[in-house]
Amino acid sequence: MSDIAIKVENVKKQYKLGAIGGGTLAGDLKSWWARKRGKEDPNTLIGTDQTKIGETFYALNGVSFEVKRGEAVGIIGANGAGKSTLLKLLSRVTAPTEGKIGINGRIASMLEVGTGFHPELTGRENIYMNGAILGMTKAEVDEKLEAIIDFSECRQFIDTPVKRYSSGMYVKLAFSVAAHLESEIMIMDEVLAVGDLKFQRKCLGSMSNAAINNKKTVFYVSHNMNTIRQLCTRCIVLDRGKLVYDGNVDKAITIYMGSSRGELVRYYDFQYADRMVKHYGSKIFIESLEFIGTELPIYIEHSRMQIRVILKGNEAIEGLRFYCPVHSLDNSPVALIETDEICDIKKDEKKIVEFSIGLESLVPGQYCFKFAVFSMGELAGHETYDEPTTKILFEVESNGNANRLNFEKKFWGNFRLNDVIVREVITSNQ
Q1: How far apart are CA 309 and CA 307, in angstroms?
Q2: Domains in the chain, start-ordered, CATH in brackets?
Q3: Rounded distance, CA 409 to CA 406, Å?
Q4: Of 353, 348, 354, the residue nearest 316 (C-alpha)
């Protein structure tokens, strides 16, 4: 048996803009006759731009890749990038305009909530109908029925018409049927966004087990980068119908989030930057932030990041402190850097404050933070004076230590806690 599960060769999918067909033969003939005479289509909606009718665009434009059995592949990209179109082509819902798609194995696809469900049928009846749509025989459904119901967590409502189900219950039941299909390829399009957190983890575990232990090929589309990291061993980035990257998951996410080394800058001017809250900057104004001691904010593991901040006081404030919430590029929280009291500031006074921040715990990757100034008030309250919305980017590079465990971000996050002290080592001769 071939090791290739899916082969996509120069696939293009073209669509026409505007409504296609008037719904009746007479209406279509009227539209055709109007176009032949160069007249306005009598069946178009009022206000329709006639110059746009009949224009075409490519939802996919020359996409090529191969996927081996047992791979878990993430598909990411902005809305309209072509992700769902690609999955519909792979699921054979529609055919490509150009190119070839080779598929080796049976496909279980779930492209939207409740695909193949009939609202008037009960959950049990829909299991049989949905199973048939996905290619299962009645005997297969009979054998797996109890497992499907248990996995879906909908046993109490299984004989209730699904029109009374919530969207989350729809997802649970539909995913459960797809997960129990004896297929070689699973295709999931953003379906877990509706389910609760517990069920999302359960589904991710099921898909991960299908890929690792059962050698199933998994295609997964999501805007949740954490689930992409947890599940996928490879990631494809689509942009306006074109494949722009295919490979490492973290690098793919970095490309998708729009950050690259070329966008790292040393100096940030906050004079005209937006503020988190309208009145921020009225008492104390953060004028600028600069990385010092480096041409670009790129640091080797275990080094220290040096920054210089310029403040202007519009009022006299005592006991200034600073904090920086640090995030990964997919906006997942990583850390909070917070200082003790640094200085006071007088009205119309400028302060230049330099910081040295240890990066010992961060693993290699790109990060961003926002800078804010505040002070502690009475009763342990605090007042923030300024916080520009500008994301400040920096990068941590590996120090090339080959004698270290390969760090898996998708399992362990962004920290490496190395502050371990060995108190005693006892050697026994017994």
Answers
A1: 7
A2: 4-256 (3.40.50.300), 262-412 (2.70.50.60)
A3: 10
A4: 348
Q: What is the pLDDT of residues 126-177, one digit of tens each?
A: 888 877 877 778 888 888 899 889 988 888 999 999 888 887 888 888 888 8
Q: 352 in the Ramachandran plot: left (φ > 0), alpha (ψ -120 to 50) or beta?
A: beta
**Partners of 109 in the beta sheet?**
187
Q: How far apart are CA 394 and CA 261, in angstroms?
A: 9
114-128 pLDDT, tens digit each = 666 888 999 899 888
DSSP state of 159: T
Q: Give the residue, 170 or 49, on which the prediction is more confident.
A: 170
Give alpha helix (H) positions in 134-278: 138-152, 167-179, 197-212, 225-231, 249-256
Reading the block at residue 282, the tokens are 């009225």
Bridge-based pairing state of the strands 185-189 and 107-110 = parallel
**Who's near 246: CB < 8 A, 6+ residues apart?**
65, 234, 235, 236, 237, 252
